[in-house]
Design goal:
single chain; HARBI1_dom; elongated; nucleus; hydrolase activity; DDE Tnp4 domain-containing protein; 5-stranded mixed beta sheet; about 210 residues
Length: about 210
């Protein structure tokens, strides 16, 4: 890769400057600067993605579940799922697409992590006005989960002997399903309240990772 391209991309990555600034600083067209940024980020992703975020599979899910069991005493949790708004300057001619509920402009990072705070899945770039649940329902992850093709291990007995599915742990912005659960949000049975208290240590892991 030519050193000139590396220099332009490094400047963009280090400062977050605009394409117009790259245009004036390095005397390249805006379209050329945009192409450089896209191509280099694409190359980085193609080289590092499978190493840093390995494909999900049953063995990996079981390993993650054991990690949550050891660190939080929460059984059968295969990942924690949540979203994070990443602030940005409003793009030109974007209207309210990037305007979020906090009255800021942003894109959204939807991510899953394991018990060691490592990402196991990311979906980044959705408009700031979009909700976590809406982004999730339009993701490849949701498609796999709803079709049963995510390679989640089959339900297995807990210590009490009852079969229990392996689950994704999320917050109340996500709809529950057989393999996705969230904290109990209302008033009701004491067992449900105890369940929410038990659930919170595991969910804290995701908050520490990408909501801090």
């Amino acid at each position: 890769m030519p050193i000139f391209i590396v220099i332009i991309f490094s400047r963009y990555l280090a400062t977050g400057c605009s394409l117009a600034e790259l245009h004036f600083t390095f005397r390249v067209g805006k379209s050329t600067a945009s192409q450089i940024v896209r191509e280099v980020t694409g190359e980085i992703w193609s080289v590092l993605s499978e190493k840093e975020i390995p494909p999900l599979n049953p063995d990996l899910f079981l390993e993650i579940a054991q990690g949550f069991q050891d660190s939080t005493d929460f059984p059968h949790c295969i990942v924690v799922l949540d979203g994070k708004h990443i602030r940005l300057v409003q793009p030109e001619n974007s209207g309210s697409l990037f305007y979020n509920y906090k009255k800021k402009f942003s894109i959204v990072l939807l991510a899953m992590c394991d018990a060691d705070y490592k990402f196991t899945y990311i979906d980044v770039g959705s408009y700031g006005k979009s909700s976590n649940s809406g982004i999730f329902k339009n993701s490849a992850l949701y498609d796999q989960l709803s079709k049963g093709s995510l390679d989640i291990p089959a339900a297995s007995p807990l210590e009490g002997g009852k079969l229990f599915p392996y689950v994704i742990l999320a917050d109340q912005g996500f709809a529950m399903s057989e393999n996705l659960i969230r904290p109990y949000g209302g008033k009701g049975l004491s067992d449900e309240k105890i369940f929410s208290i038990t659930e919170s240590p595991g969910q804290g892991g995701a908050l520490n990772v990408h909501l801090g």
